[in-house]
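Dataset card, provenance and construction

Sequences and ligand SMILES were collected as paired inputs. For each pair, a complete structure of the chain with the small molecule in place was predicted and serialized as structure tokens. The example below shows a pair involving LARABZUK. Curators did not alter the output after generation; any descriptive sentences attached to a record were derived from the structure itself.
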Amino acid sequence: MTILDKIIRQKEIEVELLKKQPLPEFSGAAKSIKKIEHSFHNTQQMNVIAEIKRSSPSKGEIDMAVDPVKQAKLYESCGAGAISVLTDETFFNGSMEDLRNVRKAVDLPILCKDFMIDPIQIDHAKAAGASIILLIVAALSDNKLQELFEYATHQGIEVLCEVHDANEMTRAIELGATIIGINNRNLKTFEVDLSATEQLASMVKNPDTILISESGIKSRDDVIQVGKEDINGILVGETLMRSNNIAALFNELKIPITKGGIPNAR
Ligand SMILES: O=C(O)c1ccccc1NCC(=O)[C@H](O)[C@H](O)COP(=O)(O)O
């Protein structure tokens, strides 16, 4: 059984529990939630989705003592375009409470980084103040993917549709996903290969699709590599969480971009 299978099995248990709980009040109601779809178009620098990640199955403990609110405010002040909060408890030591607290502290779009298999999870993400949720194509049948995509969209929640290979990218395009994340990490083997972004981004022909390169990005050179294709943003977790100079790291990662990719990257 792969780690993704184990995570999904755990989510099935959690979903049954969520269905027995009352839905918390929407804590982010007072905020005007900015959309990634608008803010990631036509920018002049690489957009950074900065992640709050205490630990992970592939790396173990990263920063168990992190204060998610302090970290999110730091990301915002350094120019993050959005914040990703890992809300899974069992495998990443995150929580929906983290997201709720971050929502109160920052005005940026917030991605609920979890493993969605049921609409009830989208309700809880929305109630905590998420503006965008993740749908991992590898973890969902076509029917489930469509159901969750339509449900989230109908709720006014944006969807980051995550792919790792050509077949998944075809499914995301056929679904009509407007924001596609190319995960450089294979969630079954943990292997990271930044060339996944280059290979899969070229399959996207709609210039309005927002493309995000996810995982394994550590340096300016890595951004230049994934930016050979026309991507709009990068999702960075571990490197930011381990950095002791986050402002300098943002300067390194926020490379000028133009339509068609980073100038001179090829
Ligand atoms: O990070 C993992 O080990 C992992 C394992 C299984 C499923 C998902 C996993 N990570 C979620 C992510 O997609 C990353 O947190 C995100 O892309 C940031 O990656 P990184 O910059 O490499 O921390």
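Derived descriptions for this record:
The first strand starts at residue 47 and ends at 52.
The beta strands are 47-52, 55-56, 60-61, 82-86, 110-113, 132-136, 158-163, 179-183, 210-214, 233-236.
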